[in-house]
Amino acid sequence: MNFMMIAVAVLGAIGLVAALVLYVCSKKFAVYEDPRISQVAALLPGANCGGCGFAGCSALADALVKGADAGSLDGISCPVGGQEVMGKVADLLGMAIANGDPMVAVVRCGGTCELRQKVVSYDGLRSCAAMNACGAGETGCGFGCLGCGDCVSACQFDAIHMNPETGLPEVDEDRCTACGACAKACPRHVIELRKKGVKGRRVYVECVNKDKGAVAMKACKAACIGCGKCAKECPFGAITVENNVSYIDYTKCRLCRKCVAVCPTHAIKAVNFPAPKPKAEVQTEATLSAVKPVAQPKASTTTKQEEEQA
């Protein structure tokens, strides 16, 4: 009986000592976490897509709290949640944020199956990264879309799909959150985040081919040849030509579409604009006078002899 009591007392003493050690260690090595971090994280979408540039939503919440303590949230935002979520976060942290322009992913390649013929057949892993590592892909263009759909696999919001007729990816503007995952997955940097624009209207060069004009046109009929006509026509200085390819700065573009009209290869694309109305034909006095009157058919005349015979 005494042995049992001693054993219980020893175990109890060990438990008390261990509890005391754990308590001291928890206080000594405690890591303080600002309670606002969990509150901000609760407001975020929780997609953990990495579009914000951080490892996940928790890391973004931590950065937002630190930014608020520093007095500025510039450069820190959630592309998935957009202005609505960032407004709630700013209210929680007692900060103000500037209204940013909504962005959308844009595929800067117009080389459809008809305009960009295959020159070789690739028999390997159907991955853009793998195909790009092997060489130029199945077409003669070493800069355009490879068509394997790495961007589709990278998108967590089902906002991009491959078009089997064109062989190119297409972005669903309503679902796109501008997280940038598709742009990061593209080994040729064909996908770019651009300002969505008023009513979704935007103008951009649908080509990234840096070859000279003759070489680019040989690989794709819709390639930009770097002629510079668009840059000369633009009255706002929004277009530059570098490395044989034009680029439109969306911060300067006023959507006048003068560049679209002068592009000889139709490499500049205008999205979500209304279709042009057909011009009504106006007939002037000069055109009316130039129209000759139609001659009336002569009335059939019969002689008196023919009538008697009838």
Structural account:
The chain is α+β, with helices and mostly antiparallel strands and about 300 residues long. The protein folds into two domains: about 35-95, Orthogonal Bundle (3-methyladenine DNA Glycosylase II, Chain A, domain 3), CATH 1.10.15; about 105-270, Alpha-Beta Plaits (2-Layer Sandwich), CATH 3.30.70.20. Helices cover about 35% and strands about 10% of the residues. It contains twelve helices and eight strands. The strands form four sheets. Strands 1-4 form a two-stranded antiparallel sheet. Strand 6 (about 240) and strand 7 form a beta hairpin. Helix 2 packs across helix 3 and helix 2 packs antiparallel against helix 4. The longest helix is centred in the N-terminal third of the chain and has 27 residues, at about 1-30. The protein starts with a helix and ends with a helix. The mean pLDDT is about 85.
What's this model, at a glance?
The chain has 310 residues and is of the alpha+beta class. Helices cover 35% and strands 11% of the residues. It contains 12 helices and 8 strands.
Biggest β-sheet strands, sense, barrel: 2 strands, antiparallel
- Total count of helical runs of at least 4 residues: 12
Ends: how far apart? 154 Å
Q: Helix-strand pattern, N to C? A: HHHHEHHEEHEEHHEEHEHH
Label the CATH architecture of the largest domain. 2-Layer Sandwich
